[in-house]
Amino acid sequence: xxxxxxxxxxxxxxxxxxxxxxxxxxxxxxxxxxxxxxxxxxxxxxxxxxxxxxxxxxxxxxxxxxxxxxxxxxxxxxxxxxxxxxxxxxxxxxxxxxxxxxxxxxxxxxxxxxxxxxxxxxxxxxxxxxxxxxxxxxxxxxxxxxxxxxxxxxxxxxxxxxxxxxxxxxxxxxxxxxxxxxxxxxxxxxxxxxxxxxxxxxxxxxxxxxxxxxxxxxxxxxxxxxxxxxxxxxxxxxxxxxxxxxxxxxxxxxxxxxxxxxxxxxxxxxxxxxxxxxxxxxxxxxxxxxxxxxxxxxxxxxxxx
Length: 305
Hints:
305 residues, Rossmann fold, 25% strand
């Protein structure tokens, strides 16, 4: 571990690929991470952590060096120019914030940014050492995954853990264990790296409906924040997300009502959802058929625009 320091407390210092603007003294903190990009369907993870940063008035205290982990031809820096002169250039960042609890046993560290494109193992090692430096007792990641679920039912939140003893925490908090095979996100590498470092980690995933892909899904985002809040023992004002959810639901209800085919397909997904909730799962083939029907409908709608 390489470290150059101006001392603890205030003052900039660097540890590996992390630039500390200050070194806060925290009480057994939990670390929560959310990354934009592929693992952030409908922006439920990044919108969720942004909501936490705002509501908790968390303080910015560190950044991870983007140079090591991003391909700037893919995640391009943003610039601003005026009168022929460049006056600003902004690179992709991964920022860390802290919040000190007034009650309870755990402060919070909130990390947000874009999923890194390079050196995932090095990135996971960097975050693990960052967590160890700050005395983190447990880590959480937030993610979003499109799913074949109706927007008219309670959002689904699923989870992964890196220690068998953590599985017992999922169901009491309304989280379903993940069953999945496919491409991995940085979350999976972090789960494995933290397990080797003996840091407990829980990865929480919100499931927005796949058939409607607005810029953001506030209802699933709210469910994800509510679930995380139960795990970390905090109370957060959700009024903004509730209002946004109502507006989005109203727009979706109108869209479905105006399209008889889509309405029947959503009804079929509702039946599947309700059947699974009662423990009488429908065959997977029926779900796949609904997905194909909705995709055909959306493709035909797009060809008319």
